[in-house]
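Protein modeling request. Please complete all fields; requests missing the sequence field cannot be processed.
Requester role: graduate student
Desired output: 3D structure, token encoding
Chains: 1
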Amino acid sequence: MALTAQRFTALDVFRGMTVCFMIIVNTPGNGATTFSPLLHAKWHGFTPTDLVFPSFLFAVGNALSFVMNRYRSMPKSQVWGKILKRVFIIFLLGFLMYWFPFVHWEEGRLVGNEFASTRVFGVLQRIALVFGIAALLIYYFDWRRALIISVAGLLLYWVLLLLFGEPGAQLTLHSNAVLKLDNWLIGPKHLYMGEGVPFDPEGLLSTLPAIANVTAGYAAGYFLQKQGKNFEALAKLLLTGCTLLFIAYLWNLAFPINKKLWTSSFVVLTVAIDCIILAMLVYVIDLRRKTNWTYFFEVFGRNPLFIYLLSEVLAILLYFFRTGDQSYYSAIYNAVFAPLGGYLGSFLFAITFMLICWLVGYLLDKRKIYIRV
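Delivered output (373 residues):
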């Protein structure tokens, strides 16, 4: 059966929601007074914030389901060129974002940021890698085989984490296969230091299970296009989500849900929740026709990578420029939002920051400017 060419508003809204909430959780006014649901789990466990990034990868798979037929009509060399070009550009943007603004303050003077201490892997880099791998898998195989290969990757990742690391401590922050491979490949100075020790939650090895988030998103998008907007399709999508929830929590008993290691049980859990959310969105938007609220999220969904990159660069610049002995980021929070209360002020700062990014997206949308990579 040929896929319908009609776009699903629900898929665009889903993508926009992930960008919206990604900005909110990434830019609290004060991390020490952030509501707990807006924080990542410290290690094992799961919070709503942990759902944001895998949902973006799921949305990448959704979007891929609309272009794959066009890829299949092109010469193979052209397809490889398009995919690899996108992988390279997104990866490079992510790397440059962590290097930016290329200087930092040190004892009142500007000093260059050394390449030797620049983070190599990260959010955009993971998006680039998993998009490229998933796109090629789906292009050369059908989506079912690509999904089977992705599931095999989840099982392989489980084995690798069990085999490597100190005996009995394979899943600790200080001893795991992800950290060992990154240390061997690029060294600790190129890793994320947010935990106080060199460890990258977007490390190279943990990219392997993340591929399944994209292929699952592709399968969901393909399924909805093929089956159409009807209650039977939604029932199947909901049933899939509920089944995967059961599998995830069962797997959690042996292989804990952990976003920072991107464990296989974490992948299954996030795909399950994404299937359920997507089914709910299709029901409300495409079946019930309740669309008076959707435009806000569609703005984010129409320029997702650009708006995300804008949010990160803007936050970096607010931290970089200083007034007195504090950054503009802290000065704005302390002057405007802190008096409203620690937790409330931090949350309202994040909401305001997100709305500023939305306004840029709104102006782009009104001018029909859509920045694609």
